[in-house]
């Protein structure tokens, strides 16, 4: 039986399915990300150094981190983390674990996690203050190529949009949107602001329709959509802020530790993914946007055995039990029927079974440490790390074609020693149930939650799950 579902002593073993690029691991674990300057009770100046591989704990207990012996300080008052996020970046977060809260720039936070920007001040009420200083500053991007080289950003300006103040602190960016840190002035909380530039009127109507669907969702494993504001050609979607990064970045940041998750943590994460997907499917909604994948699984707070949320619902659709002709998604996570429909526009596929296939791919990755279809064969099945030639091929039509063929062939390889010696038979059976070629025979999310692998530890999973979400604001 897999035990220790929620023990912090269980080291987070990690998984990856491709060699991280140099930009994705821009900061080695020992690199300084930020320092926190403070003056202690004796009037001495001190600096707390924060790196990616080691959080800093502030509290009264001498067994943990930085000690403040004041009675107003909790045993473990707060934790400071540097979290690897989108390629080449990190965020600094502060998680309050105290009884009387922690002040961020004078605003009290309780039992919550917030993101810090360069120059922010955190304070133990009636005790010490700490100023956060990033270890390096990033140049502001040019607005156009003829603009003079811009100066280093030293302050994060804010722009008022409705009841929100949107800062210049970027949390992530993609082909169609950027995400910035924002502050909800009415509810006194940090949020994420996803900004999309639209070109046509029907695009605005489409986004409003999609956001209307998403604002009605309310579940601990679904990233909340709070509001939508339009500012000229820009649409600003305000979302629940998660401070632990995404699952893929979390995996990459621990790549030197191991190659896969320990089974108990994979089960805890998978249980939450299935619970969130079940909520969506109950409402006849499928995810579909780039498909379920680690990049779309957010960690509410840093640390092992995380509370996760499914995010990025740009292509979520109602009536997901109906066939769609609009094929979308990352090839590596599309089911066979999606691959076939991609190459034959007269075909379609159903969103709900597609979500279950994608969940099966993620479970395979978490347990084995490599992707079931998108990997380099090399000389043996253990060639999980793609060569430079394969990385180049994967980005090409030829490489994508190889992955498509493997998915359509429908053969999932369980011959590796990991599957025969380290992963339980029940876990393998669930992967097999989800990665069935025929979507009519594939396990539904309801069947997956009734699998022996989940049911065997269901009480422990639900207990850990309830305890975690009860201590976090929602």
Automatic annotation (TrEMBL):
UniProt: ATP binding residues: 194
Gene Ontology molecular function: any one: ATP binding
Keyword field: ATP-binding, Kinase, Nucleotide-binding, Transferase
Domain FHA, residue spans: 56-109
Superkingdom in the source lineage: Eukaryota
Pfam annotation, one family: Pkinase
The Protein kinase domain, residue ranges: 165-454
Family named by the database record: Belongs to the protein kinase superfamily. CAMK Ser/Thr protein kinase family. CHEK2 subfamily.
PANTHER family assigned: SERINE/THREONINE-PROTEIN KINASE
The protein, known as: Kinase-like protein
């Amino acid at each position: 039986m897999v035990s220790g579902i929620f023990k912090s002593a269980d080291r987070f073993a990690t998984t990856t399915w491709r060699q991280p690029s140099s930009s994705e691991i821009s900061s080695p674990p020992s690199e300084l990300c930020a320092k926190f300057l403070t003056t202690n009770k004796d009037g001495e100046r001190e600096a707390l150094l924060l790196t990616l591989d080691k959080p800093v704990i502030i509290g009264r207990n001498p067994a943990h981190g930085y000690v403040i012996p004041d009675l107003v300080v909790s045993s473990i008052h707060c934790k400071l983390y540097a979290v690897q996020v989108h390629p080449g970046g990190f965020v600094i977060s502060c998680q309050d674990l105290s009884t009387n809260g922690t002040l961020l720039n004078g605003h009290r936070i309780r039992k919550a996690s917030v993101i810090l920007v360069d120059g922010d001040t955190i304070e133990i009420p009636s005790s010490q203050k700490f100023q956060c200083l990033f270890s390096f500053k990033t140049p502001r991007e040019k607005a156009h190529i003829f603009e003079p080289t811009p100066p280093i950003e030293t302050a994060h300006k804010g722009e008022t949009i409705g009841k929100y103040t949107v800062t210049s602190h970027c949390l992530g960016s993609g082909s169609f949107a950027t995400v910035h840190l924002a502050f909800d002035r009415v509810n006194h909380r940090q949020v994420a602001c996803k900004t999309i530039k639209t070109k046509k009127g029907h695009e605005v109507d489409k986004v409003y329709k999609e956001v209307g669907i998403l604002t009605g969702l309310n579940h601990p494993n679904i990233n909340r959509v709070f509001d939508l504001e339009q500012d000229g050609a820009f649409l600003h979607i305000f979302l629940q802020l998660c401070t632990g990064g995404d699952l893929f970045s979390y995996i990459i940041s621990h790549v030197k530790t191991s190659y896969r998750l320990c089974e108990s943590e994979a089960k805890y994460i998978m249980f939450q993914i299935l619970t969130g997907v079940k909520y969506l499917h109950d409402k006849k909604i499928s995810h579909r946007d780039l498909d379920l994948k680690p990049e779309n699984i957010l960690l509410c707070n840093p640390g092992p055995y995380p509370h996760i949320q499914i995010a990025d619902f740009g292509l979520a659709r109602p009536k997901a039990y109906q066939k769609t002709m609009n094929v979308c998604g990352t090839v590596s996570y599309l089911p066979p029927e999606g691959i076939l429909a991609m190459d034959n526009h007269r075909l379609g596929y159903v969103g709900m079974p597609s979500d279950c296939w994608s969940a099966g791919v993620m479970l395979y990755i978490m347990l084995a440490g490599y992707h079931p279809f998108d990997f380099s064969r090399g000389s043996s099945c253990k060639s999980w790390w793609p060569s430079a030639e394969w990385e180049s091929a994967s980005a090409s039509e030829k490489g994508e074609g190889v992955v498509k063929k493997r998915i359509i062939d429908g053969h999932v390889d369980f011959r590796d020693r990991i599957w025969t010696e380290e992963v339980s038979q029940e876990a393998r059976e669930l992967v097999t149930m989800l990665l069935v070629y025929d979507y009519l025979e594939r396990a539904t999310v309801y069947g997956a939650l009734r699998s022996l692998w989940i049911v065997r530890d269901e009480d422990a999973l639900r207990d850990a799950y309830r305890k975690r979400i009860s201590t976090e604001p929602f």
